[in-house]
Design a protein that fits this description.
Layout: H1 3-8, E1 19-20, E2 28-31, H2 38-52, E3 67-72, H3 84-87, H4 91-101, E4 105-111, E5 117-125, H5 128-131, H6 135-147, E6 161-164, E7 168-171, H7 173-182, E8 190-191, H8 195-206
Parallel strand pairs: 2-3, 3-5
Antiparallel strand pairs: 1-8, 4-5, 6-7
Helix pairs in contact: 2-6, 7-8
Length: 210
């Protein structure tokens, strides 16, 4: 992967470069699914976290949980979730924008003083497109998109996943390699300069382990 290609993954629509990774162990919780789906969803998160060389936790000492996934059939359901507006003060306006855009997913990140990710809220409206996706694929896709602060359009043209044997979803090798390079201990938890993309690309080309 060239430095220019790496740069596109973290260049936002306004042209600015912004990268961040988690600075603390990830403690997830899932709302709005039946009990049978929980192990699948958490298993997908655990797989991506392990691939990155990062850590999971039962609880976050500051927040309790720090990766929250909300599944709903209609965006208006979010406004009925108790205390969600305290976690996401802009909730009412957000719901309006999501409805207007006919969106089926959205992520909000929170950051610590060093710029590292400290929390992520994932909202999924199970429209016919998402309903056709298996729980395993959905879990893996959302975990990949939550493990780093990607650009707005990082995966608009191509999914971070690929299918093998027709229906088994796996993380595309180049995306997996990029995640591992991003979590290398010598790399910063946050970066706003494109020289960071050069460093990532160099690690990809050299095969430097995490």
């Amino acid at each position: 992967m060239s430095p220019e290609t790496v740069e596109t993954f973290f260049t936002r629509n306004d042209g600015s470069y912004l990268f961040a990774r988690w600075g603390r162990p990830i403690a997830p919780v899932v709302f709005g699914v039946d009990d049978a789906a929980l192990p699948v969803l958490k298993g997908g998160i655990e797989a991506v976290v392990a691939m990155a060389g990062h850590q999971m936790a039962e609880t976050d000492p500051e927040l309790g949980v720090n990766l929250m996934l909300f599944f709903c059939a209609d965006w208006d359901e979010l406004t009925a979730v108790r205390d969600l507006d305290r976690l996401v003060p802009e909730l009412a306006g957000l719901v309006g924008r999501l409805k207007a855009a006919d969106a089926n997913q959205y992520r909000i990140f929170r950051f610590d003083a060093a710029g590292a990710i400290k929390a992520c809220f994932v909202f999924l409206r199970m429209d016919r497109h998402l309903a056709d996706v298996s729980a395993e694929t959905l879990a893996l896709s959302q975990a990949v998109q939550s493990i780093l602060l990607w650009s707005d359009g990082a995966f608009h043209d191509q999914s971070p996943l690929a299918l093998i044997d027709g229906d088994v979803a796996v993380i595309r090798p180049e995306i997996g390699a990029l995640i591992r390079a991003a979590y290398d201990r010598v790399m910063p938890v946050m970066a706003q300069d494109t020289s960071h993309a050069l460093r990532l690309a160099a690690r990809l080309q050299s095969g430097t382990p995490t």
